[in-house]
Amino acid sequence: MKKVLFYRKGAFGDTLLTFPIFEVLKRKDYYIVAIGNTDYLKIAKELNWIDEIYSDFYKEILKKNYELKIIFSKTEGFDPFPSERIWIVDYYFNLLKLEKNFSLVLPIKDSIESPFKNKVVLHPGSGSFKKIPDFSLFEKIEKFFRSKGLEVIYFVGEADSWIKNFTQNFWECFDPLILAKVLKKAKLFIGVDSGVSHLASYLGIKSFIFYGPTDTLLWKPIGKNYKIISLNLKCSPCFPKVCEERPCLDSSLLFDKFLKAFNDL
């Protein structure tokens, strides 16, 4: 069997956006050895899209023979980021000359015992506080859904302990694979530009995702049932050089845009 070595370090959302590469290469009967964040990569391993996962370039990995090496790094191989404004997935596929034929819904089995079953899941968190609007935005959204008789619950992940200062109505989990299996049962998802939002969209959940300083084209999620909510200011995108005022994350304006997007369903 042909072997490929794949390397791309990154956060949760970055890693999920590489999954279509694994799916397409696996369809070509490659044996895939992937290096990155193993907590995230084990979702792809669960789907049998990759065969071995490692957190770094260990000697025993490098000793093996590979028909193909795909390295995304600032120091060798391909640049992890495109030089033009293009969706990162398109960048990968153009670079590797792969056919863009991949799943828009992650075919993972759900969990019957899900704390999110038929609930609206709110996730105000992100790995960077520069992307996070004032919590009042999510309080308004929670109130809106409760007024419609829907059950609402917050998700708290590894970088989200601060959310517990605002609500006791949450479910906490630090395992991405478990999260994927339980999140699939959610009725709706509302979040910011984060790995969890990328996961929700990829799972096929109807998702509303707030983008402020980050690029809505470069970092849009995989999926066919999501809506990006952005104020589309002239100064955006600006991440990571984000101004202190962050007008792109104005809670009142974002809430109005959310209501319009929801009512247009």
Question: Can you characterise this structure?
Answer:
The protein is of the alpha/beta class and 265 residues long. It folds into 2 domains: 2-96, Rossmann fold, CATH 3.40.50.2000; 120-263, Rossmann fold. It is built from 9 helices and 10 strands. The strands form 2 sheets. Strands 7-6-5-8-9-10 form a 6-stranded parallel sheet, with helices on both faces. It has a 4-stranded parallel sheet with strand order 3-2-1-4, with helices on one face. Strand 8, helix 8 and strand 9 form a beta-alpha-beta unit. Helix 6 (136-147) packs parallel to helix 9. The chain is globular. The relative contact order is 0.14. InterPro entries: Glyco_trans_9, LPS_LOS_Heptosyltrfase. Keywords: Glycosyltransferase, Transferase. It holds the Pfam family Glyco_transf_9.
- CATH top level of the largest domain is Alpha Beta
Major sheet attributes: 6 strands, parallel
> Unreliable segments (pLDDT under 50, ≥5 consecutive)?
none
Tell me the CATH topology of the largest domain.
Rossmann fold
CATH superfamily of the largest domain: Glycogen Phosphorylase B
The total strand number stands at 10
Work out the count of structural domains: 2
The CATH architecture designation of the largest domain is 3-Layer(aba) Sandwich
Give the SSE order as H and E letters. Answer: EHHEHEHEHEHEEHEHEEH
Q: Treating each run of at least 4 consecutive H or I residues as one helix, how many helices?
A: 9
Approximately how much helix is present in the residues?
25-40%
How large a portion of the residues is in β-strands, by DSSP E? 15-25%
| Nearest-integer average pLDDT | 96
Overall spatial form: globular
Radius of gyration: 19 Å
- Whole-Å distance between the termini? 47 Å
Read across the widest sheet, the strand sequence of neighbours is 7-6-5-8-9-10
Task: Kindly name the structural category.
Answer: alpha/beta
